[in-house]
Amino acid sequence: MTEAEYLANYDPKAFKSQLLTVDAVLFTYHDQQLKVLLVQRSNHPFLGFWGLPGGFIDEHCDQSLEEAVLRKLQEKTAVVPPYIEQLCTLGNRHRDVRGWSVTVCYTALMSYQACQIRIDSVSDAKWWPLADVLQIPLAFDHLQLIKQARERLTQKALYSLVPGFALSEPFTLPELQHVHEVLLGKPIQGKSFRRRVEQADLLIDTGLKRTERGRPANLYRLKSDTASYRFLRNLEC
Amino acid sequence: MTEAEYLANYDPKAFKSQLLTVDAVLFTYHDQQLKVLLVQRSNHPFLGFWGLPGGFIDEHCDQSLEEAVLRKLQEKTAVVPPYIEQLCTLGNRHRDVRGWSVTVCYTALMSYQACQIRIDSVSDAKWWPLADVLQIPLAFDHLQLIKQARERLTQKALYSLVPGFALSEPFTLPELQHVHEVLLGKPIQGKSFRRRVEQADLLIDTGLKRTERGRPANLYRLKSDTASYRFLRNLEC
DNA sequence: TTACTTAGTGACGCTCAGACATAATATGTT
DNA sequence: AACATATTATGTCTGAGCGTCACTAAGTAA
């Protein structure tokens, strides 16, 4: 049989297939703490529960998995996050009562300000402090995904400046350090952090300064290659 | 509508769904080089081409994605690899002529000896030297997946002893070092490598020695926590 | 002017990777 | 038996960079 004949006879619905969704754990930093974007479900299963933004692929408009998850995020936040990365894919026969189900989960970061207005204007999406999220029941296995995303981001705080994407630009160096400290759950030596930042050469000094109690702090932006830069040595916290 | 009513009316075939497969990039180390297991396809599309071992989920026997990919590997090698890790999930509307298609791809490592007999006995599976694989046309986007798996493993050679899972136990320390050197494409200072291995405390000294020209070398096994151990500092190669 | 607060620097020790000389232990040759 | 050779393993020095902490800088408030 030639490939042409095979395709002519091919029936996409002949084989039973699995439920496939994309989801995103979108973090930001606000009020001195990490927050994650959750959406209140308007459909079964888990109707009324809070869960991760995401959903099914739309074959009409989504060219790829990443386009699909970005579309889902954009529907809620009206913007595209400056950082997104595939986290993992979770699939088994137990996670959804409808049957064998698979989710491709992403981790994303963005500033609180970038979408504050949009989020405040809708009732079904909300930034949740990470500590609070651990206390409430979530849809599906989304709690597990959030924990895993957080662990990965904590690791990144040790050897990259990726957490900076959770801030709105321009930001001060102590602000960036504090995001890392919140992720690690421990204080970082300011001197060590500054040394690393300087050596990495990932921050653009805007020349501006911000003052709020104490000596004014320099304001920086992230260079575009921050997402892929890795330090050779981890912080030892 | 209650959830029970929703589920009673739920038709799994009502929504168009995507092709979903699992694939694995299985590496080993043999004849001083890295090899990858490829399978010759017996179906359209890409009939007759070499590609990664993998295939569709079998809802009857697979409880999870990982079980599915392990089953696929076991069908070819007759054994379960000592190391497996999710690599990435690739999904878009162009990678398969049959339509929107998604693969959840894993990276795995195992020793050459563990399945040599089984592989030699079948005609459709074969260990390919990695350099050769880059020269031949592969099915789908499997070349891209192999390259990505190799890059990730190269990174792991800088901050872990995971590449050791490509060896058969017991192995010598210079053998382990050479796997790392092949991955990195550069020689490593023997002293640095030994220091790290000792400090990590991941090798069990079997007390045995192996001699083949020169001073006999100690033989080691990997501790089970080698898969998750990370050095704080990278090799600087 | 002084106290206070926060931002940023200087200087020293420690750990560990790189580099390379040296020792140890086997085989093969004379 | 003595020696050459090959390979494994160790000793030691140097340097990069993190931890630590004292100190300086630059703003606000009393």
UniProtKB/TrEMBL annotation, chains A, B:
Signal peptide: none
Gene3D superfamilies: Nucleoside Triphosphate Pyrophosphohydrolase, Winged helix-like DNA-binding domain superfamily/Winged helix DNA-binding domain
InterPro entries referenced in this protein's UniProt entry, alphabetically: NUDIX_hydrolase-like_dom_sf, NUDIX_hydrolase_dom, WH-like_DNA-bd_sf, WH_DNA-bd_sf, WHD_NrtR
Keyword terms, alphabetized: Hydrolase
Gene Ontology molecular function terms on file: hydrolase activity
Ranges for domain Nudix hydrolase: 17-150
Origin: domain of life: Bacteria
Name assigned to this protein: NUDIX hydrolase
Record organism: Shewanella cutis
